[in-house]
Amino acid sequence: MTMKLRAAAAATAVFAAALIGGAATPSQPAAAAPAPATAPAAQSYLPGANHVFVINLENKGYDETWGPASAAPYLSQTLRSQGVLLNQYYGTAHNSQPNYVAQISGQGPNPQMQADCQTYTPFVGAGTASPGQAVGDGCVFPASVPTVAGQLKDAGKTWKGYMEDLGTPCRHPALGAVDDTQKARVGDQYAARHNPFVYFAGITGSPDCATNDVDLSALTTDLASAATTPNLSMITPNLCHDGHDSPCVDGQPGGLASADAWLKQWVPAITNSPAFKQDGVLVITFDESDGPQSDASACCGEGPGPNAALPGITGMGGGRVGALVLSPFTKGGTWSTTPYNHYSLLASIEDTFGLPYLGYAGTPGLNRFGLDVYNAGV
């Protein structure tokens, strides 16, 4: 399979640099808006992907999901045989909400985010810290804090968030209001805290939110052709189908069993689509491990941030969760032992589309997907 290099380097020289881990050391606040994004390294390797899909499931540690006793055999066996398993992939925080935010902005957690933003409060800041961290506390970042959604729009690319049970596009609590989606209800198991796009005023204050942050049901129509499939699709099942609740309010078993049934329905719809077959990458991962009391481990040099000395509440990260990558550019039944986390995922998405790195995605030496992932031609 033909591979291409980002202009400037040959593949053999690329990955020695791309697979070195490193740590970020936040500086003191210095400005009123986040620091400029870090430019992608010229050596980054790309397979030619142009459609990236990310599915986030909830609150399961690596062994529970990928071990021999997994309650998700479709994911851990059937899909596992079709892709590359990243067995050192980590969440970046506890609880859920900051992990989703990390994937689209590179912002680390603050106390209200670690509490899952029970109230939909505006972020109140006092400058920035390196790399590109807004310093302060709160849930809804000001328009000055960039996201990959804005990056893609500026680059002439497209994005959508597909949220199960969202119903009304761009649904979120009123600013300052208590979040009434924290618990599932029969017929409405949407959780705003699992929809990262609604935590950025640059998105919620734009018509793009109503157009691009939509109910999961819209995905079927969008997958009909490569032209109607966004370059980036962030997909979130509801509180039952993402494995969060067990049992679910509607009587379903929940946990990995319900997540596996959901994947059986939706993953083939993605992998059989024209966009995926042409140049797609599907990443299936979990926001965090079971919880801060069980696993707050980290990788990739993650350490204290300007707003949270312990991003994982009791440790430095969100625990080891693993991730599976399916693509025409990957080889089935393989694995990578390279350490990755949600910031790595953001950086890898930005590599794919030639975008600057945002926030902690710009951590020096952070691992980004390389030939260990895009291994079909290796």
Automatic annotation (TrEMBL):
Signal peptide span: 1-32
InterPro entries: Alkaline_phosphatase_core_sf, Phosphoesterase
Keywords for this protein: Hydrolase, Signal, Virulence
Membrane-traversing stretches: none
Pfam families, per database record: Phosphoesterase (PF04185)
Database matches in Gene3D superfamilies: Alkaline Phosphatase, subunit A (3.40.720.10)
Keyword Phosphoprotein: no
Protein name in the entry: Phosphoesterase
Phylogenetic classification of the source organism: Bacteria, Bacillati, Actinomycetota, Actinomycetes, Micrococcales
